[in-house]
Amino acid sequence: MPNFRSVDFHCDVLWKLLEDRSLSFEQDHTGKLDVTLPRLRQAGAVLQTFAIYVPERMEKSMVPILHSIDLFHRKILSVPDMTFVRSSADAARLMNRSKIGAMLSLEGADGLHGDLAMLRILFLLGVRVVGLTWNHANWGADGVMEPRGGGLTKKGRAFVEECDRLGILLDVSHLSDRAFWDLAQFAPRPRIASHSNARSLCAHPRNLADDQIAALIQQGGMIGVTFVPQFVKAIGESEIADVLRHVEKICELGGEKQLMFGSDFDGIESYVRNLNHPGELHKLQNALLARYSEEMVGRFFAGNALQFLVKHLPG
Ligand SMILES: [Zn+2]
């Protein structure tokens, strides 16, 4: 398809840049990066979300978060092909321009320690999507791998309220089930699962149960089908055909206009076969075109996510 456009709601290339300051997003000669400028070009990318992820062994403070934002500016936004997306108007312009939008998300708010001033500062710096936890527990909530499975703390609730007030979108992808439902109890705000699949097809705790997906959809939220092979298929090698099963399931649950992709490229060490980096997205697209209309595939790849952001990012 000549006008292939794509949006990816989650990648971890910023984490790799944080770990190894010599790496280049613009032209990677090491083969260490999945998401690079040439590959985003191959993918017809209109928007890439860049997650700030601070590994557990690093200091739980604002420092590594701010270092990631510094790297985002110096190594990604400094490339003339890229443009910062912070507002509804920024998102609205993307479809008709040659630049690739770059959005900032925070994967795990451990380093904020519930300090709402830090959250407001991150908003000023352009962070527009926040996942309260990574896999484990922090001051705000339990992550999905925390055995006790707790929900939101009092500080976590205040944090959610401030995100809602500011217009920061909340990402439920790593939350415990209890925290997911706690979040759903707030005034019905659309939430995002930036990189999660259907648990009814692949029983991994990082995936969402059908009732969770239905609740996300009902509240007007979005789900980003992810290419983490262990979240695609429980046993055996994951194939593009297995990714399609998750797309089908989400459509079956009523989410055909709320489905997008969140690759998790650069956050994974193994890959769905033939889906190793953004430059191979056309293979997934071709597989989808065999089953869905061109219009629908266009929605899955870009239209749904852009429409959502135009509607829900701050003005
Ligand atoms: Zn993740």
Q: State Rg.
A: 18 Å
Number of strands: 9
Spans of 5+ residues with little confidence (pLDDT < 50)? none
Q: Which small-molecule ligands are present, each listed once?
A: zinc ion
Fourth-tier CATH superfamily name = Metal-dependent hydrolases
Number of structural domains: 1
Strand content: 5-15%
User: Based on the structure given, which CATH architecture is correct?
Assistant: Alpha-Beta Barrel
Give the class from helix and strand content and strand pairing.
Answer: alpha/beta
Main CATH class: Alpha Beta
Give helix and strand order, one letter per element, not per position. EHHEHEHEHEHEHEHEHHEHH
- Give the number of helices: 12
Helical fraction equals 25-40%
Oligomer: single chain
Mean pLDDT: 97
The main β sheet shows up as: 6 strands, parallel
* CATH overall fold name: TIM Barrel
Per the principal axes of the C-alpha atoms, what is the gross shape? globular
Question: Could you give the distance between the termini?
Answer: 33 Å
GO molecular function: metallodipeptidase activity
Pfam family, one: Peptidase_M19
Organism: Paenibacillus montanisoli
Protein name: Membrane dipeptidase
